[in-house]
Amino acid sequence: MSNLLIHSMNEFRDLILATLDIAVVTDVVEIGTEYGGMSTVLSAWLKPRNGRLRCIDPSAKPAFLEWVATESDVQHLACPSLEAMPHLSAADAWLIDGDHNWYTVFHELEGIFAKTWAAGKHPLIFLHDVCWPCARRDMYYAPESIPQEFRKPFTFNAGAVLDNAVTVPGRGFRGGNDFAYADTEGGPRNGVLTAVEDSLISQTAAGHKLAWCRVPAVFGLGIIFDTAAPWSKAVVAHLLPWHENKLIATLEQNRLANFLTVVNMEDSIPMCSVPVFDGTYFSEVEQEALWGKFYTGAPQRQR
Ligand SMILES: C[S@@+](CC[C@H](N)C(=O)[O-])C[C@H]1O[C@@H](n2cnc3c(N)ncnc32)[C@H](O)[C@@H]1O
Question: How far apart are the CA of 3 and the centre of ligand 1, in A?
Fold first, then answer.
């Protein structure tokens, strides 16, 4: 199923790397690495530029851990972003793709802005998940780590659907054991895009002039950058064709609708509760014995 749904920032690699090139970036922080889909791309791009990459992820996948162990110029901080943030120096560019909720993203952004201004640098920040389902809906990898006053009522087993702000039990896009969604989409302090807007409001009120671009594909890529940067006009020219591009938005809606249709079909099929019972690992006799003992909800065999 996961192969049906591309979800890595890696899908935006050409667009991101070209922007890094224009902004003459050599120092990058990536929040949320998972399998290292984007980390490996960033590292390969930074190497010939004598750059450095710092990656933050408290639960990175083994594929990333094995790779990073062989990379002397990549540093891995195995803790949540908001714990790592006070120990980090400013970078040229930041990628935010960790815990997709208002509390985490708002404070990541505010931390990044504070460091960047203090170092006399120009912010350049890429954020994933600024479109559906997390634009206006919190997602929590570890709900217990979010202070209660910022945490929305949440669910692990009800899913997000396109035509309803409320999650649907046993249906839709959902995380199972991996992550939870806020029960309801919308309202204040809910979702990644809302966190971006609130941070941009606070930065603008402090006198900073920031530009915002959103590419409405693969759950949405947002880019924030300083209009006072010497490279900002070139970045605008590079990003403008992608910003809120209607054709891309239509393709994304179509992709999500197709994916959710498949999820719905899968959810409608009665599931066997025996793990890995796909016939591969058991003899026919064993399979029959398991069917006799363990099926739940599946129709009785007719033969
Ligand atoms: C969607 S995946 C990242 C995908 C990756 N950026 C890519 O483009 O291939 C989200 C990752 O964020 C990590 N994560 C969750 N909470 C985090 C936090 N508070 N700080 C940093 N990373 C976090 C998860 O462990 C997970 O590996």
Answer: 18
This model's pTM is above 0.85: yes
CB 222 within 8 A of CB 196: yes
The rounded Å distance from CA 295 to ligand 1 centre is 36
Whole-angstrom distance, CA of residue 135 vs CA of residue 224? 15
pLDDT higher than threshold 70 for residue 273: no
User: Domain spanning 2-265: which CATH class is it, in words?
Assistant: alpha beta
Most ligand 1 atoms within 8 A of CB, residue of 11, 33, 95 to mutate:
33
Kindly report, as residue ranges, where domains of CATH 3.40.50.150 are found in the chain.
2-265
Q: Report which of 168, 130, 136, 163 is spatially closest to residue 152, judged by C-alpha positions.
A: 136
Q: What is the pLDDT of residues 194-247, one digit of tens each?
A: 999 999 999 999 999 999 999 999 999 999 999 999 999 999 999 999 999 999
pLDDT score recorded for residue 269: 82
Q: Which residues line ligand 1 (CB under 6 A)?
A: 8-10, 31-34, 37-38, 56-60, 80-81, 97-99, 104, 141
What pLDDT was estimated at residue 300? 52
Query: Cα angle vertex 38, ends 174, 2, to 5°?
Result: 30
Give the Cα separation of 148 and 151 in Å (integer).
Answer: 5
Mean of pLDDT values over 124-135: 98
Tell me the pLDDT band of 45, cut-offs 50, 70 and 90: very high
- 195: CA distance to ligand 1 center in Å? 17
- Measured in angstroms, how far is the CA atom of residue 33 from the centroid of ligand 1? 5
Our separate counts of H helices and E strands in the chain read 9, 12
Judged on CB neighbours under 10 Å (0-12, 13-18, 19+), 148 is exposed
Quick one: pLDDT at residue 276? 47
Taking alpha carbons only, the member of 221, 261, 262 closest to residue 242 is 221
| CB-based contact 167:183 (threshold 8 Å) | yes
